[in-house]
Amino acid sequence: MTRKAAIVGGNRIPFARSNKKYARASNQDMLTATIDGLVARHGLAGEQVGEVVAGAVLKHARDFNLTREAVLGSQLSPSTPAYDVQQACGTGLEAAVLVANKIALGQIESGIAGGTDTTSDAPLAVNDDLRKVLIAANNAKTLPDRLKLLGRIRPGQLVPDQPRNVEPRTGLSMGEHAAQTAKVWEISRESQDELAVASHHNLAAAYDRGFFDDLVTPFLSLTRDDNLRPDSSLEKLATLKPVFGKGEGATMTAANSTPLTDGASAVLLGSDEWAAEHNLPVWAHLVDAQTAAVDYVHGGEGLLMAPAYAMPVMLARNGLTLQDFDLYEIHEAFASTVLSTMKAWEDPGFCKEKLGLDAPLGPIDRSKLNVNGSSLAAGHPFAATGGRIVASLAKMLHELGPGKRGLISICAAGGQGVVAILES
Amino acid sequence: MGTPVVLPSAPSMGKLFAQAALTARGRGGSLPDTHLTRVAVEVDPEQVADYAEVCRFRFGDTLPPTFPHVLTFPLQVALMADRSFPLALPGLVHVRNRVDVVRPVSVSEKLDLEVWADRFAPHRSGATVDLVASVRSRGDEVWRGRSTYLARGAYAPAGPVPDVPDLEIGDVAQAAVWRVPDDAGRRYAKVSGDVNPIHLSGLTAKAFGFKRAIAHGMWVKARALAALGGRLPGSYSMDVSFRKPLFLPSTVTLSTGQRDGGWDLAVRGAKAGTDHVLATVRPL
Amino acid sequence: MSDWYRDFANSGIGSTITKQLGLPRPVRLRRYSPGQPLLDGPALVGSAGEGRLRAEVESVLKEDGVTVLSPVTADGEKGAKVAAVVLDATGVTTPADLAAAHDFLAPAVKRLGTNGRVVVLGEVPGEAPSPALAAARQALDGLVRSLAKELRAGATANLVYVPAGAEASVPGPLRFFLSGRSAYVDGQTVTLSAADVPSGDGGSTPLAGKVAVVTGAARGIGASIAEVLGRDGAHVVAVDVPAAGQALAQVANRIGGTALQLDITAPDAAQRLVEHVVQRHGGVDVVVHNAGITRDKLLVNMDAARWNSVLAVNLQAQLDMTQALLDAEGALKPGARIVAVSSQSGIAGNRGQTNYSASKAGVIGMVRSWAPEFASRGATINAVAPGFIVTEMTAKMPFGTREVGARLNSLQQGGLPVDVAEAIAWLAQPASAGVNGQVLRVCGQNLLGA
């Protein structure tokens, strides 16, 4: 039996809506500030941790070694190793799983898992045609040859390719994909809006009771997530026009979908011994995790449905049912994603045909779901969401007392999903 | 008594350079005892972000440690451009710069700036003068700067020569290679407001006797300091001696060595090994 | 610190002008830095009457490498400057005995150099069995305060009352008042008490191995306190409101401490603080209640919110946190030190600050009331009352008011946050065990409320 990695703390900067407070901050700026906040909270200045693992979904070429660069700029010892990972919106959780596994195997005693993303400082790609001409011109031997090649550049080619939130293989945005799934599962507008309102109210309440005092460090004068609307209500949300999907059945609005957001998060993990040596509380252990992927291109499955497939595998391995948990954190990429996933787990047909189960996984007690708010309220800087959820859930389980279980489910682009179990 | 003069806003640098050039002749005498001040100056985060990018600092809540120089530099120029200043601004060469970071300063702090001239002293090839800056936040001095300028062939009134030892560094090892592009001067001018023509283009530099445009010393200093990001004491001074001008474009090396709780640094030509900038960083 | 007026007054021409105009000529105060000798020159030690502390004083000075001159040998070296003058006046029993104090001090003070120190040790007047004895002892207070006002060039004079049985408590306070740590403490009186005082002064890290909580540590005086405690060897838990978390993290990382984001007025704040120090540090040795706010208005115009918030942060939170630490098993380590930041306004009052002054006066009451209970635990609780410290509040004043305000004291200049921090760090030392229930003003002997 290998040991389980302990989650002993976390930090994130408040999440900011795209092109607002963090418009001028790069991924490296945000990740470094986040690590420094974590270091300060846990008294780690000048110390070396086993490994720092983090990533970003939208990444400049200059950030090929983003995490290591952030470590070098941070207050951690410069002899702390680091590497980058990327699994779309699963990045943060996947990073935590990687650190936890190395701790479990005894390869490291402590580690930091994190993620950062900015849609304000997203890399712009040179138009492919332009790139070809520029390379040819660069290789040209004579000046006339070069000028001739450069003369072939057309104005249209000077427009850079904007990074778009679309699936390369389907050309559809994530929201359009989610809208298709919402239609399949007949997710109502009202149920989506309810989930969104609950997210805002829960997050606001958590801030008010000081829950985030040891989870968030202000950055660039922002002290709370600026997407948070404590006064959000069903009446207000009902007035919004759908932005994804078409025609009569369209249900997805700007309020029940997450906005583009900038931010970063980090989680501190260690062996129980390391935590004890540093007098740090063990909030929870990372018990197990599972990833899955679906064929959303040709297989007829929804882009964001992979967690539905990952879950039974992990539950079976641990001898648990879907109801054996005290808290659930299902990432709110879209309200409809959360609701579709839960509906699928309750659906005998889906569970039998797609998951190969004799009986459905069954319902989740909604009073245990996303109790301190989730991405609809906080925002969703892709790679930073996993770290936000892991640290918050671990702390919540710790507050409930020993032996409490929590479940995490995060959907990711490319038809992937990551799920994990934490236990206090 | 030292005369405090409070300026309501940052003076326009272009105008000052022009005014200084027009009134360059016939200067002399002793230093004015004017203290130019600005109070409750708010830092523009956009300018900080631009500055951080050009000098390769991280952008965050903390001001890049050399940024207060950008805030106080216009006051320096205003003081030197004024007719009461004994030396002609065009032709002054920045030979030494010391910055004391008493503590990190937040972007959101309102800063009181104070600049005055000090140590007008003879030098083997002319005369030097120091422009001293003090930056306070809520009464606490958080930052000090001392820029030493050399006026070749000028005379300082007879008096004691300040005992400032030459800056020397110990062993350093190459840490980085910088390719400094042709437009480095223009880019730094844009974010710092230091539009001295010798930095802007080959043509304007030639007018002042340089064969090509030269990099701003304070940019080299800032970039060297940025390279130490995360490895600096909380409170320190960085003393820099500007040696041979760094012509643009150039490839240079940064060499570093840890010493006395701080650092020794050298920025040298990649080929010939010419000393462009030597620096020490020491805890305060 | 750039004090342009001070710098100017010390320049060649400035010196001439200020002398001619009779303007004050503030000097650059000798402030402490690690490794600095206790004194920059010899000390003159004398007694008035049959004092009982002279041997103790001389042994402390010699231990720190200070040359001790007695009045007799001193006469042989006329003109040589001395760095300190120490008078053991515990032998003063009648008003007539005070003449001996005058006889010693008058020639001695004449030889005091820049940033010199005068320390007078006396018996506690309140414990005197007769009115004449009490009068003679109390007279020292007036003597020292007036002398402090006469001293120039950064020199200070302070009085230490030493009751019988408290002799072992003397070295720590004596070193403080002689050293650069007390640069801005002038004209003050401290009454010692008997205590178990550990031997030695801890060298350059008197707080090594100690855990110190500092509230309001993100900036200003609080950040300075955190830095000085960290410099002296303590692991600092830097506390401030969550909104100041970014600056707080920087302070904590700078000194290798820990950041704790906590609104000290929250209902569960005291409990959270206790849990944090017990779990993360196995208890706390030093607590500095520094967090404070101002919401100034004339009393007649002051709304309830202004009144309540100032009292909640500046006073109630200090009471609640201290009580919670006392109540929780293992929260306060043996020999714990509490230092509460009061204010000159709490002593002298200040127009527009009824709420603030009330809270800061309340802090003094709290400290005095709790002192016996802390003494019974081998711990201490004291208050430090800053005067005109050049910081946040004072920076809001107009230029002229500030410049004048900064000089309305015997040292003719404003103090710095580090001056307050040094006084607090001294009270936090193990060697300060015999200082309890005291209110120490760090004000350069301000004219207000003196």
Automatic annotation (TrEMBL), chain A:
<dbReference type="InterPro" id="IPR020617">
    <property type="entry name" value="Thiolase_C"/>
</dbReference>
<dbReference type="Pfam" id="PF02803">
    <property type="entry name" value="Thiolase_C"/>
</dbReference>
<dbReference type="Pfam" id="PF00108">
    <property type="entry name" value="Thiolase_N"/>
</dbReference>
<dbReference type="InterPro" id="IPR020616">
    <property type="entry name" value="Thiolase_N"/>
</dbReference>
<feature type="active site" description="Proton acceptor">
    <location>
        <position position="411"/>
    </location>
</feature>
<feature type="active site" description="Proton acceptor">
    <location>
        <position position="380"/>
    </location>
</feature>
<dbReference type="GO" id="GO:0005829">
    <property type="term" value="C:cytosol"/>
</dbReference>
<dbReference type="InterPro" id="IPR002155">
    <property type="entry name" value="Thiolase"/>
</dbReference>
<dbReference type="InterPro" id="IPR016039">
    <property type="entry name" value="Thiolase-like"/>
</dbReference>
<feature type="domain" description="Thiolase C-terminal">
    <location>
        <begin position="283"/>
        <end position="423"/>
    </location>
</feature>
<feature type="active site" description="Acyl-thioester intermediate">
    <location>
        <position position="89"/>
    </location>
</feature>
<dbReference type="InterPro" id="IPR050521">
    <property type="entry name" value="3-ketoacyl-CoA_Thiolase"/>
</dbReference>
<dbReference type="GO" id="GO:0016747">
    <property type="term" value="F:acyltransferase activity, transferring groups other than amino-acyl groups"/>
</dbReference>
<comment type="similarity">
    <text>Belongs to the thiolase-like superfamily. Thiolase family.</text>
</comment>
<feature type="domain" description="Thiolase N-terminal">
    <location>
        <begin position="6"/>
        <end position="271"/>
    </location>
</feature>
TrEMBL record, chain B:
<dbReference type="InterPro" id="IPR029069">
    <property type="entry name" value="HotDog_dom_sf"/>
</dbReference>
<dbReference type="Pfam" id="PF01575">
    <property type="entry name" value="MaoC_dehydratas"/>
</dbReference>
<protein>
    <submittedName>
        <fullName>Acyl dehydratase</fullName>
    </submittedName>
</protein>
<feature type="domain" description="MaoC-like">
    <location>
        <begin position="185"/>
        <end position="256"/>
    </location>
</feature>
<dbReference type="GO" id="GO:0006633">
    <property type="term" value="P:fatty acid biosynthetic process"/>
</dbReference>
<dbReference type="InterPro" id="IPR002539">
    <property type="entry name" value="MaoC-like_dom"/>
</dbReference>
<dbReference type="GO" id="GO:0004312">
    <property type="term" value="F:fatty acid synthase activity"/>
</dbReference>
<dbReference type="GO" id="GO:0005835">
    <property type="term" value="C:fatty acid synthase complex"/>
</dbReference>
<comment type="similarity">
    <text>Belongs to the enoyl-CoA hydratase/isomerase family.</text>
</comment>
<dbReference type="InterPro" id="IPR003965">
    <property type="entry name" value="Fatty_acid_synthase"/>
</dbReference>
TrEMBL record, chain C:
<dbReference type="InterPro" id="IPR020904">
    <property type="entry name" value="Sc_DH/Rdtase_CS"/>
</dbReference>
<feature type="domain" description="Ketoreductase">
    <location>
        <begin position="210"/>
        <end position="387"/>
    </location>
</feature>
<dbReference type="InterPro" id="IPR002347">
    <property type="entry name" value="SDR_fam"/>
</dbReference>
<dbReference type="InterPro" id="IPR057326">
    <property type="entry name" value="KR_dom"/>
</dbReference>
<dbReference type="GO" id="GO:0016616">
    <property type="term" value="F:oxidoreductase activity, acting on the CH-OH group of donors, NAD or NADP as acceptor"/>
</dbReference>
<dbReference type="Pfam" id="PF13561">
    <property type="entry name" value="adh_short_C2"/>
</dbReference>
<comment type="similarity">
    <text>Belongs to the short-chain dehydrogenases/reductases (SDR) family.</text>
</comment>
<protein>
    <submittedName>
        <fullName>3-oxoacyl-[acyl-carrier protein] reductase</fullName>
    </submittedName>
</protein>
<dbReference type="InterPro" id="IPR036291">
    <property type="entry name" value="NAD(P)-bd_dom_sf"/>
</dbReference>
